[in-house]
Amino acid sequence: MQFSEHWLRQFVNPTLDSQGLSHALTMAGLEVEELEPVAPDFTKVVVAEIISAEKHPDADRLQICKVNVGAAEPLQIVCGATNARAGLKAPCALVGAELPGFKIKQAKVRGVESFGMMCSAKELGMAEESEGILELAADAQVGQDIRDLFDLNDKLLTLKLTPNRTDCLSIAGIARDVSALTGATLALPIIHSVPASHTQQLAVNVNEPAACPRYAGRLIQGVDANAATPEWMVRRLERSGIRSISAIVDITNYVLLEQGQPLHAFDADKLQGGIQVRYARQGEELLLLNDQQLTLSDEFLVIADDQGPLALAGIMGGEASAVGDTTRNIFLESAFFDPAVIVGKARRLNFSTDSSYRFERGVDFGNTVQALERASQLVLEICGGQAAPVTEVLHQLPERPAVRLRLSRLNSVLGITLDATLVAALLKRLDFQFKQVADGVEVTPPSYRFDIKIEEDLIEEVARLHGYDNIPALAPQDEQRMLPSSESRLSRNSLRDSLAASGYQEIVSYSFVDESWERDFLGNANAIALKNPIASNLGVMRTGLWAGLMETLIYNLNRKQERVRLFEIGSAYFAEDAGYREVGRISGLAYGSAEPEQWAVAAREVDFFDVKAEVDLLTHGRAQYVAGQHPALHPGQTAQILVNGQAIGWIGKLHPKWQQHYQLPRSAILFELDIEPLLQSQVASYVQVGKFPPVRRDMAVVVDESTSIQALIDTMRTSKNTLISDIALFDVYQGKGIAEGKKSLAFLVLMQDTQKTLTDAEADAVMAELLDLLAQQHGASLRN
């Protein structure tokens, strides 16, 4: 919202300079994004009249002008402008004047004395380009300072408004806020009802009262469409970023800026029958004022006559009914449209208008007729004509329910104490209607404040009027004490430290993924869909963290990073009958060589067992691995991870089809675990250190090829023999001497007694017990 400071000060003029006004607005939540002068500084430039202009004797393109600047004697000025002529009024920079970039001095031009300079708009910094000297109106007062003539001491303020403050999309709305903030007197334009000069009216039929609860219009006959727009109005429009078009259009734009109410003027002679407010019929066509030809659908609200659509309601008028130079009779429209009907429609058509910007945020439905009366006043003053009575169609307007503000809640949120008298005074400055209740006040928001809906909105209003600067910034005070920390539970940082120490780098990715990813990569056909996704490829909540890892891998590969180690700690989301479930996960990815390139280690690719070692660290060696199938992983190199018999995740090599899909030169190894079981830790307990040497025995057994090694180890560990301290596999053999379909597994068994040295008989008994367990449960036999 850009506007002229001087225009604002005609409605409210606080005792603040431009910087002070800018600061006050910003601190009240109306951020001033820019404050700049309308023209650069210059001095001693006045309105002058050229009395005579004669050709320079020694230069074809120069003229010697006698110029009246309001002094006792006219000045002699040499001028090279082609439009310099006797009787012309134009700006004249006197000797000593300082213009943007240079200073005016008395000089000789081709032997002729010159006592000043006739100025163009470019030389005064009022335009980027100009031809000839700036021509002024014939009634401009000779000798008047040009800065006063054009009001060049004005400044432009640009507000960066939040979407909820639609009331400040007008000069009147900003003035109301400035008056409330500073206590300065508010003097808005006095709007009288225009007396009717005739009784002819257009019939208005609102077919969609929910979409258009209020519609008002007035027929004005005999207007002069070619009347000149007053200079003051043109100046205010241009300083608000709107160019002057014609008097009638300028008036509607002026009232839009002044009152915040969009208006539209139809050429009444081009209308066929009365006005209808309805939804477009499928396939109807409309040529807009911006020359865009539309084929409408039934989701667009239109203003129509008996022949078809005339305008897109609340967005833009049509070319067929536009006012022009030959217009004699106009129909002025002012309406309130439901914001839900207008929102997004202009953007869908790839443009935006000042009207749609306001209507889709909500305009003051209490000011619809007043704005129409204001526009009618200006039309009659500038263009003449005879006005008819206002035709108004009124239906159910939006309700403005009362909002209760509790003093206890106000003081609790702000952290200061404001009494009821002060709060009432602040609300009166806002011109809010309210009544005192037992625990505070009950406020009925005015029609122009769509943003006042809940108690917190009123707290914000009181805070900004009281002044954020007046709320002390107090540091919070609280008792500091150590929080309890259980040794049986680890922190997530311990997991981060473990992977970071192994060369992994943490990433943070979106919790939203593409639906096809969930369906194809993770096998989830019941992903949680977002109602308002931030992008088309981020439409559902993830049930796994691999999507972010894969995207980051590809990003790094595209930047020539050939060895990648990534992990992420985040949440996965699941839909259930009772609602939704969120599960914490830790996920990792390894790609490229097993070790950084170096001379001491032979190069090889990272494999399943490298990553399995990282998982063992995260699970503190409690993990069990069971062959499984996962849609994202290689069918022969995939394992489900169990801790204490409960499935907590997956580990495996990326499926070849996904490697091909992502055009990866090598495959990646992935893992993902539920994080909660990893945080459970056993409390350290004392174990007596043995003083006697351990005994190692090796045992090689033959079992079926399909028998799991882990199953054999788990079986041996079921032995309750306290002499056993460790069991581990150290050899696997298939080949000569081993029957087909069989394999030989060699285990080491460490035994130790803390009280004495073990005898061979005791060690033999332990080995026999273990062999017996393997034979009974797995059909194992001792290898010969």
TrEMBL record:
Required co-factors: Mg(2+)
Catalytic activity: tRNA(Phe) + L-phenylalanine + ATP = L-phenylalanyl-tRNA(Phe) + AMP + diphosphate + H(+)
Cofactor-binding details, from the entry: Binds 2 magnesium ions per tetramer.
Domain TRNA-binding intervals: 39-147
Ligand binding (Mg(2+)): D451, D457, E460, E461
Protein family: Belongs to the phenylalanyl-tRNA synthetase beta subunit family. Type 1 subfamily.
Name recorded for this polypeptide: Phenylalanine--tRNA ligase beta subunit
Organism listed in the record: Methylobacillus methanolivorans
Lineage: Bacteria, Pseudomonadati, Pseudomonadota, Betaproteobacteria, Nitrosomonadales
Gene behind the chain: pheT
